[in-house]
Design goal:
The complex is a heterodimer.
Chain A: E1 2-7, E2 10-15, H1 22-29, E3 48-51, E4 54-57, H2 63-66, E5 70-72, H3 80-91, H4 101-114, H5 120-127, H6 137-150
Parallel strand pairs in A: 1-5
Antiparallel strand pairs in A: 1-2, 3-4, 3-5
Helix pairs in contact in A: 3-4, 3-6
Chain B: H1 7-10, H2 15-30, H3 36-40, E1 61-62, E2 66-68, E3 74-78, H4 87-99, E4 106-110, H5 137-164, E5 172-174, E6 177-180, E7 185-188, H6 189-197, H7 227-231, E8 247-252, E9 260-265, H8 267-271, E10 275-281, E11 284-289, H9 292-300, E12 303-307, H10 316-328, E13 333-338, H11 341-346, E14 351-358, E15 370-375, E16 380-384, H12 389-400, E17 407-411, H13 427-438, E18 445-448, H14 451-456, E19 464-472, E20 478-486, H15 512-515, E21 520-527, H16 542-559, H17 564-569, H18 576-588, E22 601-610, E23 613-624, E24 627-638, H19 645-664, E25 670-671, E26 674-675, E27 694-699, H20 717-729
Parallel strand pairs in B: 3-4, 8-18, 16-17, 20-21, 24-27
Antiparallel strand pairs in B: 1-2, 2-3, 5-6, 6-7, 8-11, 9-12, 10-11, 13-21, 14-19, 15-16, 15-18, 19-20, 22-23, 23-24, 25-26
Classes of the chains: A alpha+beta, B alpha+beta.
Chain lengths: ~160, ~750
Amino acid sequence: MAISLTVNGEARDLDVAPDMPLLWALRDHLQLTGTKFGCGMALCGACTVHLDGQATRSCVTPVAAAAGRQITTIEGLATPAGRAVQSAWIGLDVPQCGYCQSGQIMSAAALLAGNPKPSDAQIDAAMSGNICRCATYARIRSAIHQASENLPAAAPAHG
Amino acid sequence: MYFRHIDAVVTGGAASAELTRRQFLQLTTLAGSGLTLAILLPGCAPGTGTGAKGAAATGPLAMPFVRISPDNIVTVICKHVEGGQGVWTGLPAIVAEELDASWGQMRVENAPAQVPLYGNTAFDPRGTMQGTGGSSSLANSWMQLRQAGATARAMLVAAAAQTWKVPAGEITVSEGVVAHAGARQQATFGQLAGAAAQQPVPKEVTLKDPGAFKFIGVDRKFPRLDSRAKSTGAQQFAIDVILPGMMTAVVLRPPRFGGKVSSFDATQAKAVPGVVDVVQIPRGVAVVAQDMYSAKKGREALRVTWDETAAEKRGSAAIMKEYKALARGPEALTISSHGDAEAALAHAAHTVEGEFEFPYLAHAPMEPLTAVCRLGPEQCEIWAGCQFQTIDQMNAAAQVGLQPAQVIIHTLAAGGTFGRRANPESDYIAEVASIAKATGGKYPVRLIWTREDDITGGKYRPLNLHRISAAIGKDGTIAYRQRVVGQSILAGTALAAMMQNGVDPSAVEGNAPEQYDLENTHLSWTPGKVGVPVLWWRSVGHTHMAFSKEVMIDELAQAAGEDPVAFRLARLGKHPRHAAVLKLAADKAGWDQPFARQPGRGRGVAVHESFGTVVAQIAEVTVAGGKLTVDRVVCAVDCGIAVTPDVVRAQMQSGIGYGLSAALHGKITLTDGHVDQTNFHQYQVLRINEMPRLIEVYIVPSTNPPSGVGEPGTPPIAPAVANAIRAATGQRLRSLPFELSAPRKA
């Protein structure tokens, strides 16, 4: 079935089954392999992408449901929050094996886009869907705080 | 460590082993002849290698472990797989140091599968086995890479001396620049690489004085080489490999271990759009399709009947019950015996008893097992996060009917391994090779294990049962009698020759008599006979041996009315490194200050050596409403020279997180031989909200050669937390994962 997607700002047309998970459409049919497969049941977060800016588990999102929406993958992450997160991740040497980190970064970027100054408890709540078996969690926390501090300042409220 | 006995394996008579021995003999015959390096360089024809006359003066300096190209990039050839433990940064740091390179010019790439050149000398000093494990990468690469860096530096200097017609002794090298002040000459490594390649390889080189180290052991910022790629989705793993015409396969495996295919009906599977073939392989039935979606749909439509006559049909509860009976029975191999434990226990006024139960554990790395195979008439290529190259070459070769040297392994980054990707049967690699063979090599095949395949697929940390009786005599001497019942990891595998007198050393490693000054001890082991496949899981035998040891020692301290740290120190006279890390952790944790006297707050300590590294951890916990929070962990580590201190810290954090995951959640159970857990909702693992808010790592300064840090952070955390829980609530925890008592009603 012909499906039209917008991925990282580009129109992409696919001929795949409508119930194919977005994850596999991205990976196997668009060769965008930065989004990872970890569990297939939305338990681990490795497959996290943004749909209209919202963190979404692509392994349980049928590709048809993503048609007509803005899909952002790790390869196309370019928001201020996303850039701040990636910069902090690199600066603090967060990744170890690195396999979960695309998903971690997408979740963190979505968190900061909605909440530029999250508390530790809010970080826990937003990030607890992303498993890291290397347990880089302490550095993930630090990197989110650092990214938060480095976010470009919002427009001033008063003159 | 147990890999010491690898020679018995390799000379076992397989054709593959013959090839390896021949290569090794070739090497030793020609050593020192200057032709050596040309023969050893992968892909290098005679006459064009390093040292050969007539080679292009603009070519790279290409050595086995270092390549310097004219664009001034220094690439370290890494024989160990990067599974997150940091070898891609640690090994280049060693080379950069001896080369006097600048960090910005350093790169790393994985070595081809080739022995003895890239053999792990901790596995076998003759280098017959390439692989990563036992936290041995830094330890066995240390001198090898220092030599490699110093050798390349000497050749660059010789080239400069020749070019500038100045004495080599007057030449300086710093941050990738070679200079002679007097002659006002300088050149980059890249500019000198071609001339350096013309130089004879020096037989002896001077290594740097540690006092002059700029990288090694220096706690300065030099970024991990892989952080950028892993933060941008650019890092390639096996699951990301795309080859022209590649098909994807998933395998339906027997629901019980030891089951076999009896018959199968592929009609419906083959009718699924996208499915191109269904083939039987030794392990089960493979569905091959154009993409993962179709492969999985095809597998759902596959009908297989299983022959379960030889299958393991017991459940884990029944196995544990049998182990408890075995622990009381006569059959046991004595591991060690000092003094007279029986007599000391018989006369003890007060005995502390413990029966400790440890479940099967899955590794569950985030990257599910994946391998790609492209099979041709004369060679078989494999792409995988390969941890056991030589063994995998042998097993893949056997599946496809080629020689091991015809198996080309492209080792990629591994998305976590924790030991899972190193197994004597090469399970997923043998599978992909067999699928390629069964499909006639018509197309490259990518085999993906789903998470369900992974969690239910075996190769677990063995289920274990310890039965311990311990006591303190009036004179303070300790009696310690321990029975261990658990499956051998080595028995029945291609590495069975590593067993010593029927004992699997990994089954009882890290035991109390080895790590404390104890007067009257008896340790024995009964191998469990179970059809569940088992494997080494991050720190292996230490995972269970450290737990019971550190909990029992702590309870003995309590029985004696003594402080747990002081009690241990009094029995570490023969173990000064243990004493040193324990004192450091205690000091940093403020152990001698009274701990917060709030209800539900407690702290506990553990100290343990594994793989040559000693670690002490102090955990502070809160137990409230039956719920546990680990608030803080203070960790002290002695790993010899900490080559990259920040990586050492990261590995301690990682080991703590991995061990805590097992302590809080990790449990694989079987019912009538079927694994009960299938995915992360049932096999729960540590998430960010459970990671201690404060983890402090302190590194003991040392001039000893580096030991490992990949595994040693894991053994102490579970007992440190258990001891903290006991201090907080009085509950004695004898099993993992923890089951906290319900809070007492008022």
